[in-house]
Amino acid sequence: MAVARSELRTLIGRVDNDNAPDSLPVRPAVPVRPPRVRPDALELEYDNILTRLEPETGILWAWMRHPERACFTPGLMADGRHFQEWLRATFGGRRREEMPFRHLVWASRATSAWSLGGDLATFTRLIRAADEAGLRAYAYRSIDVLHDNYQALDLPIMTVALVQGDAIGGGFEAMLTNDLVVAERSARFGLPEILFDLFPGMGAYSLLRRRVGERTARTLIEDGKTRSADELLELGLVDIVCDPGEGEAVLRRHLAERAHRFGVDLTLKRVRRRSDPLGRSELIDIVDLWVEQALCLGEASLRRMDCLARHQERRRAGR
């Protein structure tokens, strides 16, 4: 079920009862278990990510499994970072014609959720503990993962978000780092951080300003509204909208139709990046401001975050 604006406001408005999630341990910065790897199929199986090569389409699928919560948990981030580094080590320096895949496609195994953003249960626990180092470590790791995806790992490939469920908060930000976004019409998108006195700090402003200009970027960040896939299509933040259940087929068809111009598409992406580069240092400076603001949040704001953290948990895979 999609998250409507009214539902978000209802969820974060519940400050009269104890919504705080149980204390959660900090997951390590590396995968809990090394992935099972079948190199010939580019098949890596992590706790939080499953990948598979589809040679006939040139797609390397990467499914976020969301076993804990439908968000960027420390475990998902550790697995994602390991996967990125594995790809760079395996394929770095190869020419376009030497790559076994053209498109890295990010999808989700959670029911009706692509990603509901940053791990709010971890955020509230770290903020209440005044653990600035822990919060900053999570934020910096987010920037590393998102910026590398934005740069396509410096490989001659295109990155794709196949959004078959809601992309909220950090999920919206992560979606924006991809070269192509295909969204099913039932998906919803939003940046709710302003509703609990924070702002989306993992790249939203930098990415949106480059795509839609300063005025629209500020509106999307400051109004806290949830928007439809068709609304984002009009803004140019989603490239293709299709009916529910048709995302994979529509993506395959689109890539097949544009296969003959992959080289020029790749070059035009490089032109866009060169004309208005987004450096990691810009993202780090902004996320430092996010950490500063997060550590100033009062208990009322944290309890609103707790409510959405519960929602993230309910939307994990299989729920």
TrEMBL record:
InterPro entries (UniProt xref): ClpP/crotonase-like_dom_sf, Enoyl-CoA_hydra/iso
Domain of life according to the entry: Bacteria
Protein name as it appears in the record: Crotonase/enoyl-CoA hydratase family protein
Family annotation (NCBIfam families): PRK08788.1 (NF006452)
PANTHER family in the record: ENOYL-COA HYDRATASE, MITOCHONDRIAL (PTHR11941:SF54), ENOYL-COA HYDRATASE-RELATED (PTHR11941)
Pfam families: ECH_1
